[in-house]
Amino acid sequence: MMTHEETMQAIKAGNIALGVEFGSTTVKAVLTTEDFKTIASGSYEWDNNFQDGLWTYAVADIWLGLQTAYANLQKQIHDNYSVAITSIKTMGFSAMMHGYLAFDKNNQLLVPFRTWRNAITGESASELTKLFNFNIPQRWSVAHLYQAILNQETHVKNIDFLTTLAGYVHWQLTDEKVIGIGDASGMFPIDEKTGAYNQLMLDQFNSLKSVQQYNWQIDNILPKPLKAGGNAGHLTEKGAKLLDPTGHLTAGAIIAPPEGDAGTGMVATNSVKKRTGNISVGTSIFSMIVLEKNLEHVYSNIDIVTTPTGLPVAMVHANNSASDLNAWSKLFAQFAKLIGCDISTSQLYQTLFDAALNDAEPDAGGLSGYGYYSGENITAIPEGRPLLVRQPDSNFTIGNLMRMHLFTAFGAIKIGMRILEDEQVLTDNIVAQGGVFKTPIVAQKLLSAALNTDITVMKTAGEGGPWGMAILSLYVANKRTDETLDDFLSQVVFANEKSETLSPDPIDVAGFESFMTRYVAGLDIELAAIKTLPSQKRKE
């Protein structure tokens, strides 16, 4: 590990790497030295808005988030090392995958950013899945595009460029219309052999009568996919000012291909080679299993995406996970404040999580619930209505309540993972990451029970996507000839990584299965809530 003086000199010389990730609730920037150690971080809390029936983020908030996170990082560096950041060797930008950002030939955004959270493309996703014989989830960019065509939206005729959030930020900072292949695989299916979009499917899409009315073809409006290690451009003067409006940062940094949060999660958990897997828990939850062979069938709950190097991955993605868990935790924090109890966030979560482990029944005391803030693709629920469900004889305790919230955070994805079990998809290890794992043991133990498999949590579990993006940028800048990303991660980055693996407890496994029986049986309650409680537009 570098000394304080060595780190200060590295900052002065610009021998540092920046990774930024635009998550669902936080924009986070991480600065590392070339030995992969985080030396500063900055963040900006944001949230999507529900406008005109769609989940979106304002473009102004994208740049405010980036600049605020970077400014907070700069301040931390100044406070800790008494130096200013004037140059950065390499950097990269990642974001929540999928979604829809469409621009005209004047680079003007045609409609507000449509995020992955919008479950509005059922018709197009179904039609394209049949056309391609390949699952097209509702979140994917091509599903949003085709739905806009089916809806006869007038903006479609003016599309000149279509990209993701990560691709948009990268484009503005580099003038390059490229994208990491993992993020690209959430826009349109990828051909593993060529490392490009699947040509047959491009042709099939362009041949659709409803598409032929436009003067563009889909292959001409998508960003170019690049594998990890490819040079995706450099920070321009304009880009440097967008990132750092103070003007201290100079242009010229090498920038890695922009990736989705799934790709950075694979990197941050060293899960990019075949038979490895990881699971990321946050606002949404998704597991990624790198496949040895193709699946036998097409499944609506299994997305086939790629690693940052282009290997096929079976992705199980649920739109909803820990949001309601966090909401209830905040409620307890408010109560603590009302009674004059000063408790830190980490203490709060530790106390509540410990109750879920030590003061709860295996099946959460008969409690059930749905942390659905938006529609849920896996369970075919079109809209979100967070619900707590209990019967008169349920044992309503804090321990059971918190165990239920952890269980329901894993509920939808369990349904999808059962498909992979039936397909006999094999993994050597599943590594978990996300904020819930910052509290030791509890979420890891209950996730192990939910999936009935060993779960590993690394020391870097809390670092997550922005750190993974910084690592990808260092791979671009420092890789040796023919060094694969797998070798770079296993032999260099994670050579001395500490981790802990927990195996499933049979009692917890049985308890979770009992919970899942109630969870599946009660989905009609969620549908009834949607019918009887109309969606309300959120106030700004």
From TrEMBL:
Residues 17-240 form the Carbohydrate kinase FGGY N-terminal domain. Its EC number is 2.7.1.16. One of its GO terms (molecular function) is ribulokinase activity. It is an enzyme of class 2 (transferase). Residues 278-475 form the Carbohydrate kinase FGGY C-terminal domain. Keywords: Kinase, Transferase. The keyword Transferase applies. Belongs to the FGGY kinase family. This is Ribulokinase. The lineage of its organism: Bacteria, Bacillati, Bacillota, Bacilli, Lactobacillales.
